[in-house]
Amino acid sequence: MGVIARYREHLPVGPATPEIDLQEGSTPLVPSRNIGKALGLKNLYFKYEGLNPTGSFKDRGMVVAVAKALEAGSRVLMCASTGNTSASMAAYAARAGVRAIVVVPSGEIAMNKLSQALMYGAKVIALKGNFDTALETVRDLTSRYNVALMNSVNPNRLEGQKTAAFEIVDVLGDAPDYLILPVGNAGNITAYWKGFREYHAAGRSTRLPRMVGAQAEGAAPIVSGHPVAHPKTVASAIRIGNPASWEGATSARDESGGMIAAVTDTEILQAQVQLASSEGLFAEPASAAPLALLFRLVREGKIAKDAITVVVLTGSGLKDPDAALKNVEPPIELDGDARTLAKVLKL
Ligand SMILES: *Cc1c(COP(=O)(O)O)cnc(C)c1O
To answer: How far are the Cα atoms of 166, 220, 263, 268, 312 from residue 294, in angstroms, in the given order?
Structure first.
């Protein structure tokens, strides 16, 4: 079952909305076995969104946005994206049998990131200019032609993404004390907060979590309070200088009594390795930012030991293995028999 079927009564869908899915959502809420113990936290969980069909939480929102576009009669979907949004859009377009067009800035075309979109059959256009130019052109075109705009300014994306908050409450029986997640364009923190509030209003939970957002130090507009002209970080999914849902993020932070803070790339990559090697969970760098922030908050004594804390692992580590591999030992080259091998391994 996908998120539309599972949470239909909480979503802007009706009898005329086609029910498409790739069985997205229903991702595991994995209890920590080792990191929680090391930090002295009794109730630490990871919401493992990398297990969505295209490897990130983007699928939750995309399935709703594509269904609504189909309902409105669109046969062509378009977005400006080099990453997880394009992968997700292309997959659901393939599923629904409609055209997908991805526009990327020509100088910044990274084939490994576009490999999913290309495999799913999207047409990829490398447009001269930077990302802002690409997005502006896509917005202009979609306002003139019957082509659906699938970037996160499409409100149906956030509607679908809020289902992750529902799932957490459904599993825990109530909202957690802390929800910690990465913040890029800030759509996801906005969507989670909406989801928690709606479930609370519907009597499905007795409380609301504190919303804690992690940005990367080189791309931390919300933390610094002004847009960043040239955002820089290893965590490409949160390399955003002027978030589309800026106000949604600050509302979530302020209404929930939470915070948004920045972590360094070094902290991010260390947290990523620690997560993989001590929990068996491989997440992309952006997903490790909230864990890096949690480490710091625990060090500073800001999280109670018995607090129920959920860290959202937004995307799969397989999305960007190059970034991760800089921090692990390379394979050992060896020419020898079992005895030599045993010696090298100190068995
Ligand atoms: C899109 C994305 C983010 C950032 O989410 P926003 O809604 O832009 O704040 C973080 N991690 C991953 C893996 C993503 O794909």
So the answer is: 22, 17, 10, 11, 11
Q: Which pLDDT tens digit goes with each residue over 273-282?
A: 999 999 999 9
Cβ atoms within 10 Å of 309's Cβ, excluding its own? 27
The whole-angstrom separation of Cα 130 and Cα 128 is 7
How many angstroms separate the alpha carbon of residue 346 from the centre of ligand 1?
42
Burial of 224: CB neighbours in 10 Å, binned 0-12, 13-18, 19+: exposed
pLDDT digit string, tens, across residues 308-329? 999 999 999 999 888 888 888 8
As for ligand 1, residues whose beta carbon falls within 6 Å of it are: 56, 58, 84, 182-188, 237-238, 284, 286-287, 314-315
3-state secondary structure of 138: helix
Q: Tell me: the pLDDT tens digits for 156-169? A: 999 999 999 999 99
> Encoding tokens for residue 93?
């377009």
